[in-house]
Design goal:
8 strands, alpha+beta
């Protein structure tokens, strides 16, 4: 079997193990992902692991003629290319330093090329630079000279150059690291990237609910926009709350308000339910710190501020499409207000009559949600516009750090709960403990997904579509959408679908001809189709709203699919017009 077919087979086996574990064996998503990771790690040949690790760590020789010039990476001063220097494109996440040596390997890398590198040409890095293209695109490069210029083999564009220590690490990964070691490495790395963020987001969400801040946000939106524009208020509130709070929890919170509005107006219940879904479901898949988009952004090396800003733009567009669908659906069909097992009509009357003096002020309710967006997003914008690292820029980098920003917001959310409810510290501790118990499960699932993605990438799957990534951006984002949608439809969980898809496509992050945020957004949009009976969110919507299963398939499933496709369209337009490289 040729290497490409073998890689595809291993990939399919891994995906089948995960999906089959969830559907057929009824395994928890954490166990299914870990099992899939172990199976893939066991099936991947050692030589494939070594070759893939070398390709990920190696710089690539590129033709200097494709650039209009070179500049210093810090000062932007023009640099002149020495006649004896060659140009190396530095891979994302790797570092080359002046005077560092790098062994040259052929582009069509074979195992024999790795067996004995003593006679291979060696490059010595002379300078670091940024290469300026004819379209003003900049790439991080290193300028180097061939130390053994008389070597019989010519050093041509496309060849790989890897420092000896990286080559040794690749060999050790393949020969000395066990299956369990490689799975654990991926698990630990992912947990280190997202653990604090998910824990803090869970605390924020729990405190918003317990303090009444979430209720205040929805009521303020309704009062600001008026009863006639209640659907707009539900979309906006759902989207805003969906950033730090999981979708199921947002729906639990807001559907009683939708039912209360139906009791007041006597109509439009279907419109209220669908607009709540339209807002909350897109934030759940596009805007960190919810686990899915957070994990995808980390795996694709997308700055969290960039993901938040881009996710908000695409998410608000898709939510608008969902709102339009809800308006049309409300004119075509109607949904009866029925008592659900968890909420009687009497309960609804009590919710509608709740005294607003028990709720915190609107501005304080919004702070825990907006603060991390402002700090992280603001620093991302500042960093791209300010070149020098002054003292105040270092301070901005500290408070704009994703972990620090979420910790500050969690502290404010906890203080709000204590102040508003006059909560004793022991009661606050119980709320935080409850939040962390839920967050722990999400962290385990997400970290297991990181382990699965790590071993998938070691199979060399990114190389199968590497040429595609450099030629047609719209095909790449469409492929990401379709892979995610297929996994989502098969096993039901949007988060697991995103984790699986980025595991397959994550190796492309350093090869793309466009900003990887578009790939992340396409994966997020692909997690929307198709919501049906294997999706826990589908059951939350139907049971809490009083819909039957048939009504859920008729009203909710087409809307989420349409929103996902609309999001893909927005991403494809964006990647063609504004590649952001």
């Amino acid at each position: 079997m040729d290497p490409a077919s073998q890689t595809v087979l291993i990939l399919l086996v891994g995906v089948v193990v995960v999906i089959g574990g969830v559907l057929a064996l009824r395994l928890h998503a954490f166990l299914a992902l870990i099992l899939g990771a172990l199976v893939v790690a066991g099936l991947t040949p050692a030589e494939r692991i070594e070759q893939t690790a070398v390709r990920e760590s190696a710089a690539t020789l590129v033709d200097a003629g494709r650039f209009s010039g070179f500049v210093h990476p810090v000062t932007d001063e023009p640099l002149t290319l020495d006649g004896d220097e060659v140009v190396l494109r530095v891979p994302r996440g790797q570092t080359l330093l002046p005077e560092m040596a790098a062994v040259v390997l052929p582009q069509d890398l074979e195992l024999a090329d790795l067996a004995d590198t003593r006679d291979r040409p060696v490059l010595e890095v002379t300078r670091l630079a940024k290469a300026v293209g004819s379209d003003d695109r900049r790439e991080n490069v290193a300028l180097a000279r061939v130390r053994r210029a008389n070597h019989a083999e010519a050093v041509e564009p496309g060849a790989l150059a890897i420092p000896p220590d990286k080559l040794k690490s690749a060999r050790d990964l393949a020969s000395r690291r066990t299956i369990a070691d490689r799975v654990a490495d991926g698990f630990g790395k992912t947990c280190g990237q997202i653990g604090i963020l998910i824990a803090m987001a869970s605390i924020i969400g729990k405190c918003l609910l317990d303090s009444g801040a979430a209720d205040r946000i929805v009521r303020s939106s309704l009062r600001l926009l008026g009863e006639r524009r209640a659907p707009v208020a539900f979309v906006g509130s759902g989207f805003l709350l969906g950033i730090p709070v999981f979708f199921d929890t947002v729906f639990y919170l807001m559907v009683p308000l939708g039912k209360a509005m139906r009791m007041r107006t006597g109509r439009n219940y279907l419109l209220y339910v669908l607009t709540i879904v339209a807002g909350a479901t897109m934030a759940h898949s596009l805007v960190p710190p919810t686990p899915g988009p957070l994990f995808v952004a980390e795996q694709l090396n997308v700055r969290l501020g960039t993901m938040i800003l881009a996710g908000c733009v695409v998410g608000l567009f898709t939510a608008t499409v969902g709102y339009a669908y809800a308006q049309v659906a409300n004119r075509l069909w109607s949904l009866e207000l029925r008592e659900s097992p968890d909420l009687s009509i009497r309960d609804l009357e009590e919710i509608a009559a709740r005294d607003e003096s028990d709720l915190p002020p609107t501005w304080l309710s919004l702070v825990p949600i907006l603060l991390p967006v402002v700090l992280i997003g603001g620093y991302t914008i500042l960093e791209t516009s300010v070149a020098t690292r002054t003292g105040w820029m270092r301070a901005a980098a500290t408070i704009g750090d994703k972990n620090i920003a979420l910790v500050l917001s969690a502290a404010i959310a906890m203080a709000t709960l204590v102040w508003q409810k006059r909560t004793h510290l022991s009661e606050l501790a119980r709320s935080v403990q409850s939040a962390l118990a839920g967050a722990g499960v999400i962290i385990l699932i997400t970290a297991a997904g990181g382990a699965f993605g790590t071993v998938l990438q070691q199979t060399g799957v990114a190389g199968l579509i590497g040429e595609l990534s450099a030629t047609e951006p719209t095909i790449v984002v469409a492929l990401a959408f379709l892979i995610t949608a297929a996994v989502r439809t098969a096993q039901g969980s949007a988060t697991v679908a995103m984790i699986t898809a980025v595991g397959i496509l994550g190796g492309l992050a350093g090869q793309l001809s466009f900003h990887p945020v578009y790939l992340a957004l396409a994966i997020g949009c692909g997690s929307k189709p198709i919501a049906w009976m294997n999706d826990s969110g589908f059951w939350v919507i139907t049971k809490m709203s009083g819909m039957t299963e048939v009504e859920g398939l008729k009203y909710v499933t087409p809307m989420t699919a349409l929103m996902g496709v609309a999001g893909l369209g927005a991403v494809m337009i964006g990647v063609k017009l504004f590649p952001l490289v």
